């Protein structure tokens, strides 16, 4: 697949010097995942009612269905959802190891010796000498590809306990918003209600150890899986829906 990336509004954030890629998912993909999530919600609600309401979608619960493999592989034009997210993941890795300005002797820099994105390198192609000595980078990009290990949808309403500070299993994680209530868009009800916030380190003088991102429909954030994050509850009408998944690096098929 030729990677003529369609991804728009790409921004690399560097809070705490940790790279976080913000990008937009196009509307056809948002509509496709929302349609599937609505079907799953309807099915699970029927099951809950059949089981005498033992698991109801209320003001304090959220349904978190897994994303069907067919949804990931369904093509919209030239790309499936998986293709789209892999393009974002490859761009993220390229930025980390090729294009982020950093200390002069870091492998995180643009260099005439480093013209080819890692995921496009061929066997035997030389790397930047600074990078060549790093066994993890060398081994990773020559032998592995990005694979979605797990993915899920989170549906939340007012008062939902969305998530305490936590991290994910995997190498790269990603979360983005498919539906955002007006109360979050307009900052009604509570300060930063429904916002997504990264946390790193502990409170120190002259250092902010939190980095919030305001939800918007189509906005996604890609980050290292180990980076802790949390979500604040919100008040107001409407559904806050998130698509989240984890990438792992696996062996390329031979």
How would you sum up this structure, described in words?
This protein is α+β, with helices and mostly antiparallel strands and 254 residues long. It has two domains: 8-78 and 147-251, Jelly Rolls (Sandwich), CATH 2.60.120.620; 93-145, no CATH class. The chain contains six helices and twelve strands. It has helices spanning 27-50, 69-73, 81-99, 129-132, 135-143, 182-185, and strands at 8-13, 20-24, 75-76, 79-80, 144-156, 163-166, 172-179, 196-199, 210-213, 219-224, 229-231, 240-251. A six-stranded antiparallel sheet has the order 1-2-10-7-12-5. Strands 6-11-8-9 form a four-stranded antiparallel sheet, with no helix packed on it. The chain is globular and about 55 Å long.
How much β-strand is present in the residues? 25-35%
Class of secondary structure makeup: alpha+beta
**Do you know the CATH architecture of the largest domain?**
Sandwich
Task: Work out the helicity level.
Answer: 25-40%
CATH domain fold name of the largest domain: Jelly Rolls
Total of DSSP H or I helical runs spanning 4+ residues: 6
> Quick check: average pLDDT?
75
Uncertain residue ranges:
1-5, 51-62, 102-133
Run of helices and strands: EEHHEEHHHEEEHEEEEE
* Alpha carbon gap, first and last residue: 17 Å
Most strands sheet: 6 strands, antiparallel
Radius of gyration: 20 Å
The coarse silhouette is globular
Number of domains: 2
In CATH, what is the class of the largest domain? Mainly Beta
**Oligomer kind:** single chain
Number of strands: 12
User: What would you give as the CATH superfamily of the largest domain?
Assistant: q2cbj1_9rhob like domain
* Lateral arrangement of strands in the main beta sheet: 1-2-10-7-12-5
